[in-house]
Amino acid sequence: MKPRRSFLTVTPNTHRGHRFAAVQRLIGVLLMIFSLTMLPPAGVSMFYGDSALDAFMLGFVTTLAIGCVVWIPVRRNRADLKIRDGFLVVALFWTVLGVAGALPFWFPTTPRMTFSQAVFESISGLTTTGATVLTGIDILPRSILYYRQQLQWLGGGGIIVLAVAILPLLGVGGMQLLRAETPGPVKDTKMTPRIKETARALWTIYLGLTIACTAAYWAAGMSLFDAIGHAFSTVSTGGFSTHDRSFGYFDNHLLETISVVFMLLAAINFSLHFVSWRDRSLRIYLADPESRMFLLIALILSVLIAVALLIAGRYVMPLQAFAKSAFQVVSIMTSTGFTTADYTIWPSFVPVLLVLSSFIGGCASSTAGGMKVIRVMLLFKQGMREVYQLVHPSAELPVKLGRKVVPPRVLQAVWSFISAYMGFYVIMLLLLLAAGMDEVSAFAAVAACINNLGPGLGEVSANFATIDSFSLWVCSFAMLLGRLEIFAFLVLLTPAFWRR
């Protein structure tokens, strides 16, 4: 019987050009698939009779044509992808897709955008950042509003995970893509034995949450259009809104409560949702140390900021202060970025504390941004171990996550990630300062982008409309780094990656 060949098998006669042809073929296929996502907003444009139909149809044709041009020369290449090819595909895909997704924004339509602004808006949507260069959102064509929300929903679900479910049907394997897309430090994202089943399980959960969120918003008073759009951005923790005032436009406490619930669900590891649904039990959430810590941090910050708001006299009723505080804490910590109040005028330490909470982010294998709670936990635990080690030098003090001992290799990876994260943050902060941005705005702009948060402070508290082209490209790069979690990009810079 002929043995099956693994996707991860290294064949000695693999030719570099042959391998890159396989990557090229995959990018071409994915571009052709992505072109189809411009048809729904075209349908919305036809339904509402707005002015953006031509832009979407031209974007669809252009993206499809480029995908064909990339795919046709290498269409017969059936080489298996290696692990490092997955990283290349992920990096290329997000970059290429960000440019392709910008086409409907850039082609003549309302609003008029420069190419830099169009790419920024597209990448912001796909990376679920939610930062925008647009103003006057309420009067934009409905199809443009829908398209922005759809970009976030696709990005939040993980376009690569979607591709993993489809590509096996085209003769291309996908386990290495999933590994590159979800580089969590400890947890195994392979919830089911086969990669296609895993991708299907993830998308079933994601779609189920979206439908439930849409229904809840609609029942609580949103129009169907707003309910769908805000469900897309809530479950993806993206934060785009169909209104300039974001969630504050609705001024509805029930809607805000529903939003908090779904933002929390979206920021928890989707593997836990899968196990909870399979076992018909909610105990799995409290049994997981990362989700427990995530909920505890959110609660502590909500209470702390509520007390600060009461002391400062911003609100008189404690319940109202806690409701406003909890919404902003959950929204910003999960990197969603919805707002119901102008938190930049709250007591001065509060806006900074909120932005800093976005560095923690949500749980691993969720749609949230930031460094992830599990990494922060491990960093803290290792720091405490070093303190105890000074007192008891000969003691064996393993770092544990729950009852499991964390291997030293994982701790090293966490330190490396944090170092790279902060290193890139400082570099991009200096670039924005060199471009003429003030210190507060630069600090918040890089934090909002690399943490995939969206709103910042100072000049970028509401939008990025006044930012120059150079700064927009820097911020776009920061959003991609945050989405790729640094290492998927750094791998491409190593000489070993490009050797045969």
Structural features, described:
The structure is a single chain. With 500 residues, the chain is mainly alpha-helical. Helix content is 63%, strand content 1%. It has 23 helices and 2 strands. The longest helix has 27 residues. The radius of gyration is 23 Å and the shape is globular. It starts with 15 loop residues before the first helix and ends with a helix.
Produce a short descriptive summary.
The chain is mainly α and 500 residues long. It contains 23 helices and two strands.
Residue windows where pLDDT falls under 50 for at least 5 positions? 1-14, 162-179, 182-191
The helix content is: 55-70%
Quaternary arrangement of the chains shown? single chain
Note the total helix count.
23
Query: Can you give the mean pLDDT?
Result: 85
Derived structural class? mainly alpha
End-to-end span in angstroms? 31 Å
Number of strands: 2
Output the strand order for the largest sheet.
1-2
Overall shape:
globular
Order of helices and strands: HHHHHHHHHHHHHHHHHHEEHHHHH
Q: Compute the gyration radius: what is it?
A: 23 Å
Characterize the biggest β-sheet: 2 strands, antiparallel
How much β-strand is present in the residues? under 5%
Which properties best describe this structure?
two-stranded antiparallel ribbon, 2 strands, mainly alpha, 500 residues
Summarize the SSE layout with pairings.
Elements: H1 16-35, H2 39-48, H3 53-71, H4 83-101, H5 103-106, H6 115-126, H7 142-157, H8 159-166, H9 175-181, H10 195-219, H11 224-235, H12 253-266, H13 270-279, H14 283-287, H15 289-311, H16 318-333, H17 349-360, H18 373-391, E1 400-401, E2 404-405, H19 408-434, H20 439-450, H21 469-484, H22 487-490, H23 495-498
Antiparallel strand pairs: 1-2
Helix pairs in contact: 1-3, 1-4, 2-3, 2-7, 4-6, 4-9, 6-7, 6-21, 7-11, 8-10, 10-11, 10-12, 10-13, 12-16, 15-16, 16-17, 18-19, 19-20, 19-21, 20-21
